[in-house]
């Protein structure tokens, strides 16, 4: 019984960590994964875009996180937006796949300000390959089978207040807990998180803009998550930024926008915790395709969104 309890505790660490990355990712380039933070962001850009992102954290560390994410964000009409996200994430023996549909309504409060309300529907599965792990006990019956959630359905909600220069968002990307078909993990799973963030786009001169943003996450009985990014944009084309994640890592962000149609981004993070003794390699690459530029309006969001 103690062996099984210890095993479940270890698995829970992987699963909670996966859930953290699965439903509430801590990417450096949040502007390309904004629908993962808040469904109310669907349609906020005033045009359509598709983004592909690949992230590899803690390179050289066995079982390091690997993530591939595809996002489509579409302005359906003046007041409605829709978005689709597909995510594949692996952390050690834990592999997760998730697909989500995001819908939003944007209410015009005045000529300058809008309030968006969003909901999302999620279908996901989590599998833990226990037989792939090495243990000190041969033929351990607790390690002979994989754990699986099967296909589970969940939902989330979000609010967004924004203008052409700044934004404030609040969301709960997932409202239900992960449940496994062949193991009771309820005593080991933490509550789902609430996310708050704010930022803006401010010109420094005719060719240079600064785009600061802050993302915070609250989870009951868990340490505070806080991430601060500041990006400088030159001539609306070249991005250079710095990022800081509380008690976790620091990094840089680089990007190049080609004719406002095709964007390439790269981010590098260096751990400032004890993890820097085993790895200093965390990389993130992104490609974004922007279409229907003619949909832009005076409510075009600040460049956190694009």
State the CATH architecture. Answer: Beta Barrel
How large is the radius of gyration?
20 Å
Tell how many strands the DSSP assignment holds. Answer: 16
CATH top-level class: Mainly Beta
The string of secondary-structure elements, in order, is: HHEEEEEEEEEEEEEEEE
User: Helix amount, in percent?
Assistant: under 10%
Low-confidence stretches: 1-25
Number of helices: 2
How many separate structural domains? 1
- State the shape: globular
Report how far the terminal alpha carbons are from each other.
Answer: 52 Å
Instruction: State which percent range the strand residues make up.
Output: over 45%
Q: Provide the spatial order of strands within the biggest beta sheet.
A: 1-2-3-4-5-7-8-9-11-12-13-14-15-16
- The H-level CATH homologous superfamily, spelled out, is monomeric porin ompg
How does the major sheet shape up?
Answer: 14 strands, antiparallel, barrel
- CATH structural fold name: Porin
Give the class from helix and strand content and strand pairing: mainly beta
Mean pLDDT: 81
Overall description:
The protein is mainly beta and 306 residues long. It has a single domain, classed as Beta Barrel (Porin), CATH 2.40.160. The protein has 2 helices and 16 strands. Strands 1-2-3-4-5-7-8-9-11-12-13-14-15-16 form a 14-stranded antiparallel β-barrel. A hairpin with a 3-residue loop joins strand 14 and strand 15. It is globular. The termini are far apart. The N terminus is likely disordered.
């Amino acid at each position: 019984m103690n062996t099984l309890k210890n095993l479940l505790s270890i698995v829970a660490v992987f699963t909670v960590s996966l859930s953290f990355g699965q439903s509430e990712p801590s990417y450096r380039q949040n502007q390309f994964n904004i629908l993962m933070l808040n469904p109310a962001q669907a349609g906020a850009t005033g045009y359509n875009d598709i983004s592909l992102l690949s992230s590899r954290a803690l390179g050289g560390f066995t079982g390091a996180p690997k993530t591939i994410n595809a996002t489509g964000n579409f302005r359906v009409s003046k007041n409605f937006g829709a978005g689709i996200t597909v995510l594949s994430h692996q952390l050690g023996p834990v592999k997760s796949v998730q697909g989500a549909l995001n819908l939003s309504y944007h209410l015009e409060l005045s000529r300058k300000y809008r309030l968006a309300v969003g909901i999302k529907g999620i279908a996901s599965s989590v599998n833990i390959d226990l037989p792939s792990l090495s243990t000190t006990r041969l033929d351990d019956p607790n390690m002979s089978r994989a754990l699986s959630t099967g296909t589970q359905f969940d939902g989330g909600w979000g609010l967004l207040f924004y203008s052409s220069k700044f934004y404030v968002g609040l969301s709960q990307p997932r409202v239900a807990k992960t449940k496994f078909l062949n193991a009771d993990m309820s005593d080991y799973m933490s509550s789902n998180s609430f996310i708050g963030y704010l930022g803006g786009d401010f010109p420094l001169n005719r060719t240079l803009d600064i785009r600061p943003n802050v993302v915070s996450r609250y989870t009951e009985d868990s340490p505070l998550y806080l991430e601060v990014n500041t990006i400088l944009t030159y001539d609306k084309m070249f991005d250079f930024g710095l990022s800081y994640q509380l008690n976790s890592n620091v990094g840089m962000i680089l990007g190049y926008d080609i004719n406002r149609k095709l964007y390439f981004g790269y981010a590098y993070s260096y751990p400032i915790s004890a993890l820097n003794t085993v790895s200093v390699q965390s990389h993130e690459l992104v490609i974004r395709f922007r279409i229907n530029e003619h949909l832009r309006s005076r409510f075009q969001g600040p460049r956190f969104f694009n």
